[in-house]
Amino acid sequence: MEITERKVNTPEKIDITSFVYDLSKGIRRYFVVILAAVSLAASLCYGMAMRSYVPRYSSSATVIINLKSAINYNDSFTTFYTQSATKQITQTFPYIASSGVLKNRIINQYGASAADAEISAVEMEDLNMISLKVSAGDPQLAYNILQSVLDNYSDIAVSVIGETDITVVTPAQVPTRADNPSQPLAMARKGVLAVLAAAVLLILLRSYMKKTVRTEDDFRRYFSLKSLGALPHVRPRRDKKDGEKLVRLDGASASYSYREAARILRSRLERDHADTGAKVYMVSSALAGEGKSTVSANLAISLAEKGYSVLLMDMDLRNSSITEVMGLPREEKGLTDLFSGNASIRDILIVDEKSGVTILPGGNAGKRAVQMLSSSRPAQLLEMARNEADYIIVDTPPSGILSDAATIVRNVDAGIFVIRQDYAPVDRILEGIQILSEAGLRLVGCVLNNADTGIVGGYGRYSRYGYGRYGYGYGRNYRYGYGSGKKNQPRDPGSGRHAGAEEKRKPFSDDEDEIDDLT
């Protein structure tokens, strides 16, 4: 089978739904970091606002400034002259107010603290009045400087515009509140908003730049492979009997949606078995940590619940984990001992009493794993197993990291590829699939593992992927059908099997199946 890459290196349209999903997931993943950054930013901005705050107080007065030389003319001329003079006074007042002469008088009178005072004058149009305003760091100082300006202005202005007469219309008052009130909380809010905006920007930028599998549609988009289902994320809960935190289909952790998703996977495997006659299915992934062992174990449990005789083999000889996933005691011996001639099948065989699954643990071969898997014994073991079980599920190492999985391909009928949602880069997944494909494996399809069950992830109870009551015909009336030949049969709640299901002999239940049979 040839696997081709689709649109991996070509620009894609921006998917708003994926962005929203990535944003929500990023916030959840980095919540503690974001919270710490927000707290730090709020504290720093609050402290800086308090330390840098300098209050400014303003005192204002409204005055009329007349030129004394205009009092000897008639009324109409006086009015015209006064209007012209007011404009001239308004234009020249800032220069006079900021002149060194006036500043020196004010500083000599009130000290160096008056040096930063700001003096301004604004003409009030059509009223022939001037609004004077003095701002300073102290309210009393602002009032005193304004009074000093009114007292000294006429003496200084006489050499510029002549003698003037000042009439105060609105007297100045000592200001009671600052023009710029302290706002440390507002600064803290700005800091918080800035950090949140930066966090959102970084998460969205990471979402745009990375390329991972988020939905089942991505299987066809990137790898031209069909989806076998999506197993939703579950939080492991401690088993009351064993005390272990497990994610078993028949345990406390499995939700309704998880069980339904596992049944969908089982039904599609049954259909492939009916169409092709395949019996030995290997389960692999691109990278470690994608949950392939959990998928292998729960697929085996689901098949056993249907009444099939199931053999679960742990061919990950470097990192055996099936017994741990199943919540069983870790065995000292496994397939490594069987292949090396130090144990028989009877010595390593385990039967999970809860599910009825027969297990062959892996052991730890280390660097000898490839040598063992390349020998004739794995092929002989699987050939024997074909006569012993209805289904054989083989858990294998990640194909994108080690060559072990490709070595196993020649001894199996088909494969299932597990992809953890939003985990491995697409190019690494493609590389892992390509390795198996080039080794001659027929991939039935992919399983999206640890899928988000939220609305954005698209795996909710009534989602289009069929985990709800009415999806894909796996509702209340069709839960156990689809490709098995036992559709709509009543279930025996005590045994977990369908009524009328044939009791299968446990694989390798005959004690004569010794290691010598493999040599």
Give a nutshell description of this structure.
The protein is an alpha/beta fold.
Polypeptide structure, described:
There is one protein chain. This protein is α/β, with parallel strands linked by helices and 519 residues long. Helices cover 39% and strands 16% of the residues. The chain is built from 16 helices and 16 strands. The protein has helices spanning 16-29, 31-52, 75-97, 100-110, 139-157, 184-209, 217-223, 256-276, 292-305, 322-326, 335-339, 345-348, 369-374, 377-386, 404-408, 426-438; strands at residues 57-67, 118-124, 129-136, 164-170, 227-232, 237-238, 245-246, 280-285, 310-314, 350-351, 358-360, 391-395, 414-420, 443-451, 491-492, 497-498. The chain has an 8-stranded mixed beta sheet with strand order 5-14-13-8-12-9-11-10, with helices on both faces. Strands 2-3-1-4 form a 4-stranded antiparallel beta sheet. β15 and β16 form a beta hairpin. The two termini are 33 Å apart.
C-alpha Rg (nearest Å): 42 Å
Helical region count?
16
Helix content: 25-40%
What is the residue-averaged pLDDT? 79
List the SSEs and their pairings:
Elements: H1 16-29, H2 31-52, E1 57-67, H3 75-97, H4 100-110, E2 118-124, E3 129-136, H5 139-157, E4 164-170, H6 184-209, H7 217-223, E5 227-232, E6 237-238, E7 245-246, H8 256-276, E8 280-285, H9 292-305, E9 310-314, H10 322-326, H11 335-339, H12 345-348, E10 350-351, E11 358-360, H13 369-374, H14 377-386, E12 391-395, H15 404-408, E13 414-420, H16 426-438, E14 443-451, E15 491-492, E16 497-498
Parallel strand pairs: 5-14, 8-12, 8-13, 9-11, 9-12, 13-14
Antiparallel strand pairs: 1-3, 1-4, 2-3, 6-7, 10-11, 15-16
Helix pairs in contact: 1-6, 2-6, 4-5, 8-9
